[in-house]
Sequence to fold (138 residues):
Amino acid sequence: MKISRFEDLECWKEARLLTRQVYEAIDLNPRWQKELRLCGQIQSAAGSVMSNVAEGFVRQSDKEFVRFLFIAMSSAAEVQSHLYVAVDRGYLSKDKFESIYEQAGKTSKIISGLIRYLRRKDRKTKIATIDQTDQIDQ
Fold:
């Protein structure tokens, strides 16, 4: 299957689900909603996962895409870290914490797999280019 839009990427779909889960969890707890800084940070981090996958996808090179994917993974880890504050403050149940934490981890693993694929692809392209250059020099 050819991927022609960022919306086709599995990691973007999972990031979207992560973002939805974060917003829904906040919507369920009025006490958490009053904690504007924490709400803003976790919402921003979740949205950043989606945004960086999308932004990287439209870049002109796999190298740039990989850079944005690493930022997306970092944002997923940030979501996980903020979840600890939320559960420690009693804004989240342990079950909801686990569910969102696992979704962030799943999203990161898929992003990591895409990074590995893009790096292997880039290496193969470089090797093919080197081989072609060697043949031209002969």
Remarks:
- DSSP finds five helices and no strands in the chain.
- The two ends are 39 Å apart (CA to CA).
- The helical segments are 10-27, 30-34, 36-57, 62-88, 94-137.
- Residues 11 and 113 are 9 Å apart (CA to CA).
